[in-house]
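User: Please write out a complete single-protein record containing the residue sequence and its fold in token form, without commentary.

AI:
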Amino acid sequence: MSPTREFRRGENVVVIHESGRPDGPDYVLVHGLGMAHDYWSELAAVLEPTGTVHALDLPGFGDAPEPPAPLGMPAAGELLAELLVAERIDRAVLIGHSTGAQVVAETAARHPELVDRLVLIAPTVNPRERTLAKQTMRFVQDLALVHPKALGYGLALYAKAGPRWYAANLLPMLEHRIELVLPEITAPTLVIRGEHDRVVPRDWAEEVARLVPGGRYAEVPGRGHETMIRAGRRVGELIVRHAGGLPAGRPVSLLDPPPAAPTLGLPKALGTMARDYAYAGLRQLAWLGARHEPRAWRRGEPDKPQIVLLPGVYEHWSFMRPLGDALNAAGHRVVVVHGMRANRRPIAETAARVAKALARSAPPAAGRVIVAHSKGGLIGKHVLIDDEGELLGIRGVVAICTPFAGARRARLFGDPSIRALLPSDETIVMLEDAASVNARIVSVFGTFDPHVPDGSALEGAMNVQVPVAGHFRLLGAPETAAAVLAGIARLTPVR
């Protein structure tokens, strides 16, 4: 193989710059937006003595000619997979920086057989700041910390790519939802972040590591978004350890105990509640034109479980549509149980109705997972208990903001359907005592829930806290969708 060569697929050309030695890991370096293979030089020098380095110029960047149109992240991930196959790069160590992390994540999720290890350096895009204005602001903030040499180098590469082509590639970057891809990754993954990275805040980088099964997290002191340019030796040493199967960084898992919820002052709590109820009010209007679930929900990948949505009290199935759309986009078929109306019937009676509805059709080969909100999680647990022979094919329940120990504030309401959620209620006590099914439950909750002040953590279950406050707003948050997908993956491991 020549040190520099081209890989072509249709109108897209990737230029491969190869160095190093043949008797070691194959390191594949994928640059970020506007960059090229050159900026890996310090890192490549650390990797070259241990294996073969393949530093890429993606279409339109560096030495690669510009195609007619930019690639979306899934298409770029497929292009990288085709390159690995064509170049006979077996079980690669994929390393992506910034936008490049989005590309390698797609490849690893779609083609696990091609990837041995994965490294995500400063992975974008933080879903809480997925707008051009926010990303531009963060980039400018990060520039203030960049070394003049690194800044000049970066500006030269941006100029080479050209502002028009750079701008054309911004939209695919912002549209991509890496948080929905991460739970699908099976390769051991190391996330690396610079301590002062303004583009990738620490909580988001740690969340990336948490969403990948078995993910690990490392932070490089004193560096920003360009960490591997000015700290190539430190980053390279981490990657070499990771590639060799040695521990690098610290383990981060969804099974870690969630951080304690912050104490909110009254003004902040009231503001959070106002936003939460505003979201709920808008979602309640969705039922006006929602007699039937979307046709797209009937289609999905056969090796993924069918999702059964169960809303909370006073909620129509359409209340959970944003989450249903996200799960369907990730390849799951999604079904709803009609006839629940406002979900005000007793928990046991509703659980029997759900079981009867599901029994009308044989469970799919990949099984079913109940994804529920609030009271729906209690109904889901009741179905798990009743389905002793697993005749319904239910692999588990992912419950969001569910009062497993009851909700003491239910005493403030006169409606019997809400007072039935009191901790002293007979059904609540029975469900709490039935701990044998807790291992088949994933409980997802936010940092502050005005309706479930005692929390939704369930002993023996997988408990996941997402960085979103409220009882209703979690249903529309991308962080929740990512946590739900990770929970589904845990409940339905590949057989």
Notes: The chain has two domains: 4-251, 266-491. The radius of gyration is 24 Å.
